[in-house]
Design brief:
Number of helices: 6
CATH class of the largest domain: Mainly Alpha
Number of strands: 0
Strand content: under 5%
Number of domains: 2
Largest sheet: none
CATH architecture of the largest domain: Up-down Bundle
Helix content: 55-70%
Distance between the termini: 75 Å
Order of helices and strands: HHHHHH
CATH superfamily of the largest domain: Ferritin, core subunit, four-helix bundle
Shape: elongated
Length: 210
C-alpha cells in the first residue's frame, strides 16, 4: 500500500468511526427526548408548577420500583420494570420542558398551582408533608425493601397503586385548570395510562385475595 492509499484508508476509517459514534449518541438520547413529543417553548406558571411536582412524583415512583425484591413474582417484577421505563421516559420530557422554560427542577411551593379548595385554602410550601399525593412514607419504603416473596409483591402493588392514584389526581387537576397545549395533553395521557396500570395492579391484588 503506497502513502496516498494509506492516507485514504485512514480517512475512511476515521469517518466510519465518527458515524458509529453519532449513531450511538442518537440511540442513547432517544429514551430521554421522545421523537414524537413537541415541547412548548414557554410554559405558564400553572404548567411549570404541575411539571415540577410531577417530576418529584415520578422520582418517587422510581424509588418504589427499586425497593421491590428480585425474588418476587416475575410478572410483578416485569410490571415494575415497565412502570419504571415509562416514568423515566416521561421524566425526560418533563425535564426538557423545564429547561426550555428556564425553570428550576424543584418547586419552591409544591402544589401551589392547584385552585383554591372549597374552604378557600390554597396548597403551599407549608403543606409539604402532603405535597405529593399517594407517596409512601420512609417507614413504608423501608418495610418494602425488607419484604420478600409474596409479601414484597403485595406491598409493592399496594404502594404503587396508591402512588398512581395520587398521580392521576394531580394530572386530572392539571387537565381541569389548563386550557390547551402539550402539558395538558400530557396530563390527560398520564390519567389514561396510569389508570390502566391501576386496574392491572387491582386485578393482581384481587388474585392474591387482598
Amino acid at each position: 500500500m503506497n502513502g496516498r492509499s494509506g492516507f485514504r484508508f485512514a480517512a475512511l476509517a476515521a469517518l466510519a468511526a465518527l458515524a458509529l459514534l453519532l449513531l450511538a449518541m442518537g440511540a442513547a438520547l432517544r429514551p430521554v427526548l421522545p421523537a414524537d413529543t413537541t415541547a412548548p417553548a414557554v410554559l405558564n406558571e400553572t404548567e411549570i408548577g404541575f411539571v415540577q411536582d410531577m417530576v418529584a412524583h415520578h422520582g418517587h415512583a422510581l424509588v418504589l420500583t427499586q425497593r421491590l425484591a428480585a425474588d418476587a413474582d416475575p410478572f410483578v417484577v416485569g410490571l415494575a420494570g415497565q412502570i419504571a421505563d415509562s416514568q423515566r421516559t416521561e421524566l425526560g420530557m418533563l425535564l426538557g420542558w423545564l429547561r426550555l422554560a428556564g425553570a428550576p427542577v424543584v418547586n419552591p411551593r409544591p402544589m401551589a398551582w392547584l385552585p383554591d379548595t372549597g374552604g378557600g385554602h390554597r396548597h403551599s410550601a407549608a403543606d409539604s408533608v402532603r405535597a405529593m399525593p399517594g407517596s409512601a412514607t420512609a417507614a413504608e419504603l423501608d418495610e418494602l425493601a425488607a419484604a420478600r416473596g409474596s409479601e414484597a409483591e403485595i406491598g409493592f402493588l399496594r404502594l404503587m397503586r396508591r402512588h398512581h392514584a395520587g398521580g392521576v389526581d394531580m394530572a386530572a387537576a392539571a387537565d381541569g385548570v389548563l386550557t390547551g397545549g402539550e402539558v395538558e395533553r400530557a396530563a390527560r395521557e398520564m390519567v389514561r395510562t396510569q389508570g390502566q396500570e391501576i386496574a392491572m395492579m387491582s386485578l393482581l391484588l384481587d388474585r392474591r385475595g387482598v
